[in-house]
Amino acid sequence: MNPFFGNNKNMSKKFETNAIRTQLNRTEHLEHSVPLYLTSSFIFEDAEDMRASFAEEKERNIYSRYSNPNSSEFIEKVCQMEGAEAGFAFASGMAAVFSTLAALLESGDHILSARSIFGSTHSLLNNFFPKWNISHSYFKIDDLDAIEALIKPKTKLIYAESPTNPGVDILDLDALGKIAKKNNLILVIDNCFASPYLQQPIKFGADLVIHSGTKLMDGQGRVLAGITVGGAELIDKVYRFSRITGPALSPFNAWVLSKSLETLALRVDRHCDNALKLAEFLEGHSKVNWVKYPFLKSHPKYKIAKKQMKAGGCVVAFEVKGGLKAGQQFFDAIKLLSLSANLGDSRSIVTHPASTTHSKLSVEERAESGITDGMVRVSVGLEHIDDIIADISQALN
Ligand SMILES: *Cc1c(COP(=O)(O)O)cnc(C)c1O
Asked: Does residue 1 have a pLDDT over 70?
């Protein structure tokens, strides 16, 4: 056990209890709720302490770019939730994605990535990594048999998300885990859409799990954050790179997130109940072409979703009949829900991926990712479900 967590005796194996009771050691004030350690550095007792600390002979905080008590608590909680050995917390989800990949890859390496990934991750692979001679190939998540043909001598890792953004497609994590293991590739899963409460990719063979803490983890649209967790050896590489390059999470945001995780299970349960009800309402609606939600029986990967997830998540995707024009009319008619780019917030949000998060992709790339002009993505929040359905219903009509 990490020396900063000596208080956590007799820990339960239950998710909810760990999320609440994993806590930093108390100070001499015996505070009940963990304080905010808003400090950039930490002091040394004497010359020997200073030397030993920098030599990493003891586990302690030196400088908040390396570690901070609030970040450590946030990381410890997520490690328990994901079944991981270690982690590092970042200022945003994209800082986590970039730093993790940059820490593990070198010039000449090749990434095998799912085609349907977060828009900024897509841009990172397409527009920036090639500058450092790091190349990639994309695979379709419903054709895993084709993956092995794409493996090159310098392929180092597989990168994927499930459920995907914004199409809520499901990737068979167990099958992908087996392919990664067989070919000795590092499997990195962005688990942001599920949250650690609904799905733990390490169980299915992932080596590293990335989250944007900005989404369901915070859950109230307040802070940006990211985290990578996984095996101690790989995380050590991520840590070495990150403590030098400086993408660390701020203590304040870590404190907010660690508190948010106390209610993650409760919130995500309600997000999922509301999302399933909305998906059922939209299915068969006369103004809607199709609806996609992992826990709808009509979802093409319903069985795999049931196998690897506890519930379907907070995002419902659907297509308004009538293409771009009808889509725009729908957004203009929305009254209660927010038109915003975030997701996993307590406030329900509607977005138009084709003109926002995925606008940087070409029309062909969007089509391959299943993004059509009339597609709407709803991040179903925690308002009363009757009000969420009423707003979407009046906007469709
Ligand atoms: C939002 C998001 C990210 C990026 O996270 P930020 O905190 O916005 O940097 C990465 N992956 C997925 C799936 C996301 O939804």
From this structure: no
Range of the domain at 355: 264-396
Nearest CA to ligand 1 atom 5: 93
The mean pLDDT of the chain is 94
**Whose alpha carbon is nearest atom 6 of ligand 1?**
93
CATH of the domain at 174: 3.40.640.10
Q: Is 9 domain-assigned?
A: no
Question: What is the model's pTM?
Answer: 0.95
299 residue type, one letter: H
| Cα(159) to centroid(ligand 1), Å | 14
Query: Which of 246, 261, 276 is at the close of a domain?
Result: 261
Asked if residue 313 and residue 213 are part of one domain, the reply reads no
Listed residue (200, 150, 135) closest to 180, CA to CA: 150
CB of 60 closer than 8 Å to CB of 67 = no
Ligand 1 centroid–CA 166 distance in Å is 12
The residue whose CA has the least distance to atom 11 of ligand 1 is: 118
Ligand 1 atom index nearest CA of 94: 9
Q: Omega into 166 within 30° of 0, i.e. cis? A: yes
Residues sharing a CB contact under 8 Å with residue 165, sequence separation 6 or more, in sequence order: 116, 117, 118, 119, 192, 193, 315, 343, 357, 377
Q: Is the pLDDT of residue 32 over 60?
A: yes
280 and 256 in a common domain: no
Instruction: Say if strands 110-114 and 288-292 run parallel, antiparallel, or are unpaired.
Output: unpaired
Measured from CB, residues less than 6 Å from any atom of ligand 1 are 92-94, 118, 161, 165, 190, 192-193, 212, 214-215, 224, 226
Instruction: Please report whether residue 10 resides in a domain.
Output: no
Which of 227, 261, 295 is the C-terminal boundary of a domain? 261
Expressed in angstroms and rounded, the spacing between residue 26 Cα and the centre of ligand 1 is 33
Q: What is the pLDDT of residues 240-256, one digit of tens each?
A: 999 999 999 999 999 99
Quick: pLDDT tens for 85-121. Answer: 999 999 999 999 999 999 999 999 999 999 989 989 9
Compute, in angstroms, the gap from residue 95 CA to the centroid of ligand 1. 9
Confidence at residue 94, expressed as pLDDT on a 0 to 100 scale: 98
